[in-house]
Design brief:
Blueprint lengths: L1 H20 L10 H26 L3 H33 L9 H14 L4 H34 L3 H23 L14 H8 L3 H19 L1 H69 L6 H32 L6 E4 L1 H18 L3 E6 L6 E4 H18 L5 E8 L5 E7 L7 H4 L11 H4 L10 H11 L3 E6 L5 E8 L3
Parallel strand pairs: 2-4
Antiparallel strand pairs: 1-3, 4-5, 5-7, 6-7
The structure holds adenosine-5'-diphosphate.
The site of adenosine-5'-diphosphate (ADP) has 20 residues, from helix 12 and helix 15.
């Protein structure tokens, strides 16, 4: 029997200390907080069994008395831990059972009354502790453990679910053996269902069966603790995955920034180069004219041509610089529009006329079509003129010799906006570039365009979009490769 009590107590000690020492900090499992109650039961009951063991070993009457007195409170406290665990676990799973929170004080009260009213306080205290705390404590705990399976079933932790069910079954058996089979007492059912009757029936002391149950409870519940290991592993895995993702995002961001930096560098380079070209032509032609004028030569016929080239290049230069300056001003929100009532039809015709001078030299033509009763719009005239010039410039740049460009000004169907469109017979734009051409620095791939040398800086359309939107309007393009392009923008009419 000494060995039986030793194993009995040891099993519960292992259970209690395993729960206490198992790393489970910050666990998200619902049953983690309550596990301390099972640990409390394990350690208290373990001590109780070892006290019983020492009772068998001890020969000293004084120590025997102390051990005898110690037994009852240890038994009561250990079972109370189970009552609490069962009640909390069940209430947490189903609020319907919230009255269970009164169970523990209720049982304590009943137990106190019963032992006070009995003649043999210690014996009836032990027997009633088993009936009143042992039976409900183990049964409720078994049910509470069974209820915990739901949480682990969802996570697919089959082994944890299996061990929880087995531990619930072990608790049920333990409840029957520990709560119902009690020391013999003078009242029913202890007078009938007791240790002596059990020994007579089975030939084995009930403590042996209880020990088997205790080992089963300890074994299955310690295996349930593997859920925390799984949780830690999963957390580490998620953490690793997150770190890898953050790293990838960071790399992508660095790559993006590098590209942007490179784009800016090449843009600066290109802009300087592009500003330099027209400047060289401009100064060269002006110098030639100055020399001719100094020598008082008659104005040669080609002097007009030189003057024209110089003028054209200066316009180009002015437009590029204005685009760059306006874009940065608009980005910083520092551009103030000067709104005035404007006849867009007239503005369009003027823009077409001025660009037609250049168009004719390239054997191209711009036709302006405007409706007669066009409503006036409140816009910054200079800005809208520059939008028109940018669009016409592009249309000219991309149209083949002999091409006709149509500049149309009309009202939209709803009659609340004026629609301006520039249609050309150029190479068109592939679908994947349609949304992008309005972005800063975006240019259609040279291969796609098959127009070497006609690639600009990707700033003209970005300027147009910002300027149109600053007016509360909308800009867009319809195009198909080989079928020309139609750039259009809408400006709201005065209400
Ligand atoms: P840039 O012409 O200075 O490069 P834009 O912003 O005006 O800058 O145009 C951006 C890109 O859109 C151009 O590089 C060109 O590839 C494409 N694009 C603009 N207008 C046309 C057009 N009418 N036909 C074909 N492609 C065009």
């Amino acid at each position: 029997m000494i060995l039986v009590f030793f194993i009995y107590g040891l099993a519960f000690f292992i259970l209690g200390f395993s729960i206490l020492l198992y790393p489970k900090r910050d666990s998200a499992f619902k049953f983690t907080d309550k596990l301390g109650l099972i640990a409390g039961f394990g350690i208290m009951h373990g001590i109780n069994e070892w006290v019983d063991m020492f009772k068998l070993i001890n020969k000293d009457p004084q120590t025997a008395r102390v051990l005898y007195l110690l037994g009852l409170p240890l038994l009561v406290i250990s079972f109370l831990f189970l009552v609490r665990f069962g009640a909390v676990g069940i209430i947490e799973s189903n609020a319907k059972f919230k009255t269970l929170k009164f169970l523990l004080p209720g049982l304590l009260l009943a137990w106190s009354i019963l032992i006070i009213s009995s003649h043999s306080h210690y014996l009836s205290g032990t027997v009633w502790a088993r009936y009143l705390f042992g039976v409900p404590g183990t049964f409720l705990s078994a049910y509470a453990l069974f209820l915990q399976t739901v949480e682990f079933e969802k996570l697919g932790l089959k082994s944890v679910v299996k061990n929880l069910k087995l531990s619930a079954a072990a608790f049920l058996c333990y409840g029957c053996l520990s709560g119902l089979i009690v020391p013999r007492a003078g009242f029913f059912p202890a007078s009938f269902l007791n240790y002596d009757m059990f020994l007579k029936l089975t030939g084995v002391p009930v403590q042996v069966f209880r020990t088997v149950c205790a080992v089963a409870i300890a074994y299955t519940l310690v295996r349930v603790l593997s859920a925390f290991e799984w949780e830690t592993k999963t957390r580490i895995k998620t953490l690793l995955e997150d770190t890898i993702k953050i790293n990838k995002d960071l790399e992508a961001e660095i790559e993006k920034r590098k590209k942007l930096e490179m784009m800016k560098d090449s843009l600066t380079h290109m802009v300087i180069h592009d500003l330099n070209n027209p400047l060289m032509v401009l100064s060269g032609n002006l110098q030639l004219m100055q020399m001719a004028l100094k020598e008082n030569e008659p104005v040669a016929a080609d002097m007009h041509k030189k003057l024209h080239v110089a003028f054209q290049e200066s316009r180009h230069l002015k437009n590029m610089i204005s685009n760059i300056l306006d874009i940065s001003k608009m980005e910083e929100g520092k551009l103030n529009l000067r709104f005035e009532e404007t006849d867009l039809g007239r503005l369009a015709r003027d823009a077409a006329d001025s660009m037609n001078v250049i168009a004719q030299q390239q054997q191209k033509k711009i036709i302006a079509q405007t409706i007669s009763d066009l409503p006036k719009v409140n816009v910054d005239k200079d800005m809208v003129e520059r939008i028109l010039l940018n669009l016409l410039n592009n249309a000219l740049k991309f149209s083949p010799a002999g091409g006709v460009i149509t500049l149309e000004v009309d009202c939209n169907e709803e009659g609340n906006s004026v629609v301006v469109s520039v249609k050309d017979s150029g190479p068109g734009i592939a679908k994947e570039y349609l949304d992008k051409v309005f972005e800063k620095f975006v240019q259609v791939e040279k291969d796609q365009l098959k127009l070497k040398g006609k690639i600009g800086k990707g700033l003209g359309l970005a300027f147009c979009k910002m300027a149109v939107e600053a007016h509360g309007g909308k800009i867009g393009v319809e195009s198909e490769p080989g079928k020309g392009s139609r750039f259009y923008f809408l400006l709201p009419c005065r209400q």
